[in-house]
Design a protein that fits this description.
Layout (H helix, E strand, L loop, with lengths): L2 H4 L6 E5 L4 H12 L3 E6 L2 H13 L3 E6 L5 H15 L4 E4 L10 E2 L2 E2 L9 H29 L2 E6 L13 H21 L4 E8 L2 E2 L2 H4 L4 H10 L6 E2 L4 H8 L10 E4 L7
Parallel strand pairs: 1-2, 1-4, 2-3, 4-7, 7-8, 8-11, 9-10
Antiparallel strand pairs: 5-6
This protein binds nicotinamide-adenine-dinucleotide.
């Protein structure tokens, strides 16, 4: 089969959260660049609307949904509105997420995210944004996808959900691990409806997460040493995997977690 057919997402209706920046932006871009109609959701209205304007000028079929994924009614409303406008929903990327601050150690020493320094307020906030919002995204998407007997749900976890990771905070690590089993659970239930549910587990990518901490030269140097490929990834390097998981190429892939990490979890 020709690649253009295998990876064909032309005419798909997609919804991506956290789409104004970083990985979500790259996911929305690759779908739109390949002919999908993408609703891009984000809390940062200025960045989102500027990006959507630019993408439309370049010929992409994109729409903005300014919303906070922690506002579950707004999130559900955003997904339902896509179905109302387009009559279907083919791919949903539950991607929005926030850092919970630094972890408890780097190679250079201890930092501020020790267990006794982690507030319950941060714990609850990160659970709302990183975990509850993904459950609600799945729930809202599944209602439509079950009825149409097809669909793809792709969740952004992290390699910090696969193993202990000293660089990230406790709430972040806990939510990213929880997402992996949420994906497995939903994949089992939704498989008879031909709704495929998968997680991606990125390693270290240049984005704006954690206030752009990855742009600090000392942090970069540390990751160069840790990552077998010897560098931090560009956000655009998520595009191939995102396209794969939304396209016919992954028609038999469900319930998996796919690391994209330059070899970090290889051991
Ligand atoms: N960058 C990495 O190295 C890395 C590694 C592993 C996993 N991830 C995950 O990738 C996902 C995307 O993060 P990123 O690195 O692209 O960061 P980013 O900060 O560049 O982008 C995140 C986007 O989500 C939006 N957002 C944040 N909170 C929101 C909310 N409550 N409602 C709606 N939108 C909200 C932000 O405005 C931003 O546009 C996150 O789930 C993150 O945990 C990132």
């Amino acid at each position: 089969m020709k690649a253009e057919k295998l990876y064909n997402v032309t005419g798909q209706v997609a919804f991506v959260t956290g789409a104004a920046s970083g990985l979500g932006r790259a996911m929305a871009e690759v779908l739109a660049e390949n002919g999908a109609c993408v609703t891009m959701a984000d809390i940062d209205g200025d960045a989102l609307e500027a990006l959507v304007r630019t993408m439309r000028q370049a010929g992409s079929a994109v729409e903005a949904a300014v919303l906070d994924v922690a506002d579950t009614d707004a999130l559900r409303g955003g997904i339902d509105a896509v179905v109302k406008r387009h009559g279907r929903l083919d791919a949903v990327f539950a991607n929005a997420g926030i850092s919970s601050g630094p972890g408890f150690a780097t190679a250079a020493g201890r930092i501020s995210g020790q267990i006794d320094h982690t507030s319950l307020a941060t714990w609850r906030k990160v659970l709302d944004v990183n975990l509850t919002s993904v459950f609600v995204t799945m729930q809202a998407a599944a209602a439509h996808m079950k009825a149409q007997r097809s669909g793809r749900i792709i969740v952004t976890s992290s390699i910090a959900g696969l193993r202990a990771e000293t660089f990230v905070g406790y709430p972040y690590a806990a939510t990213k691990a929880a997402l992996i089993n949420l994906v497995r659970q939903a994949a089992r239930e939704l498989a008879p409806y031909n709704v495929l549910v998968n997680a991606i587990a990125p390693g270290v990518f240049f984005t704006n997460i954690a206030g752009g901490r990855l742009r600090d030269p000392a942090v970069q140097e540390e990751f160069r040493r840790i990552v077998p490929l010897g560098r931090i990834a560009d956000a655009a390097e998520i595009k191939g995997l995102a396209l794969f998981l939304a396209s016919p190429a992954s028609s038999y892939v469900t319930g998996t977690v796919i690391p994209i990490d330059g070899g970090v979890t290889a051991g």
